[in-house]
Write a structure and sequence with these properties.
Structural class: alpha+beta
Number of helices: 4
Oligomer: single chain
Number of domains: 1
Order of helices and strands: HEEEHEEEHHEEEEE
């Protein structure tokens, strides 16, 4: 299986610091895999991160972009409401909605209309990001359907929605982590997820 990293030397370092397992597509997917980035709290604790599969998406001309085939899996640590590292506030608990929002915003990163003026792009992204949050906060709403996919071989329900830009799904694992995913050109219906056995193998070194 091909594993590549396009985010620079030792891109895997942040992933190795995570106190939770990472998820990716299962072994049925035999294409390239690549690290994206991790998100950390103010105290440096890794809270979430993404692993890409297939073509590395980019902001290209619309015709080229339509030929891209990729799926990105977002792992979000399960965290209860907790005090911030400096003791001055409370950090919000993570949930399936957290994974849905991260996946929705991730898809937007690569889907803004290429012919759009850059001054309009920021307004468009702000509007679409707000929409992604509203949708993620209403997983029981009519914009979402239920899709059952295997996670480590266990049938698992996911919230699923499609848009003109691609698809987004979100659910929770038996290990307690929340999973989000987004993609384009690859059907979500045939996907399966599993724990990444050796994230260090994704380092390009």
């Amino acid at each position: 299986m091909e594993t590549t990293s396009h985010t620079g030397a030792r891109a895997v370092d942040g992933y190795l610091l995570a106190p939770f397992p990472w998820y990716g597509l299962d072994e049925a997917f035999t294409g390239p895999r690549w690290l994206m980035q991790v998100g950390a709290a103010a105290d440096g604790t890794v809270e979430h991160g993404s692993i890409g599969h297939g073509d590395e998406p980019s902001v290209r001309a619309d015709a080229e972009r339509e030929r891209e085939r990729f799926a990105v899996v977002v792992t979000v640590a399960a965290s209860p409401v907790r005090r911030s590292g400096d003791g001055t506030g409370v950090l919000e608990a993570t949930s399936v909605s957290s994974a849905a929002w991260l996946a929705g915003v991730g898809l937007l990163t690569f889907t803004w209309p290429s012919q759009m003026d850059h001054t309009l792009r920021d307004d468009w992204l702000d509007q679409q990001t707000e929409t992604a949050w509203v949708l993620a906060d209403d997983l029981g709403g009519e914009d979402w359907t239920t899709l059952t996919l295997p996670v480590d071989g266990v049938p698992t329900p996911f919230h699923y929605r499609e848009s003109e830009f691609g698809w987004v799904l979100a659910g929770s694992t038996q290990s307690g982590a929340h999973l989000g995913a987004y993609g384009r050109g690859m059907s979500a219906y045939g996907l399966g997820f599993s724990v990444v056995k050796d994230i260090a193998a994704y380092d390009g070194q």
